[in-house]
Amino acid sequence: MVLLALFDGLKQSLGLYPIYIPAATGPKITGALMCEGSLEGVLSVSAKSLLQISTYKPFKTVSSFSCPLLLVALEDDILYLLKGREFVAAAIPTSKCELHTISQSEHFDVYPPNKDYERSVDVQIRFL
């Protein structure tokens, strides 16, 4: 999988089309997400994205943000836990950060055409 990710990164650096891999899979099948609820979402990603997932630590940079920031947390998200969003929000001065939690919502529920897409859009519009 790492070799595929590196090859995809090389292709994209040359301006070529990405190699897409399953974003979510069932048991014993290689993919980016292999957990409950994954198969209901977006089902392909660029292989190169796997190189960034392990080093992605948003809480290391958010304290330096100078613009207002909206964090939308989903109460029942098993991929990005609510506690993690609360941890990130706590690292930002409250005058710059709004943490909004959508109750009874899972990770992919806020993507179109799923049940909480409109709720998520409404939160974003009110923030703007």
Automatic annotation (TrEMBL):
Superkingdom of origin organism: Eukaryota
Recorded GO terms, molecular function? hydrolase activity
Q: Which UniProt keywords apply?
A: Hydrolase
Could you tell me which SUPFAM superfamilies the record lists for this protein? alpha/beta-Hydrolases (SSF53474)
Which InterPro entries is this protein grouped with? AB_hydrolase_fold
The name of this protein is: Alpha beta hydrolase fold protein
Lineage of producing organism: Eukaryota, Fungi, Dikarya, Basidiomycota, Agaricomycotina
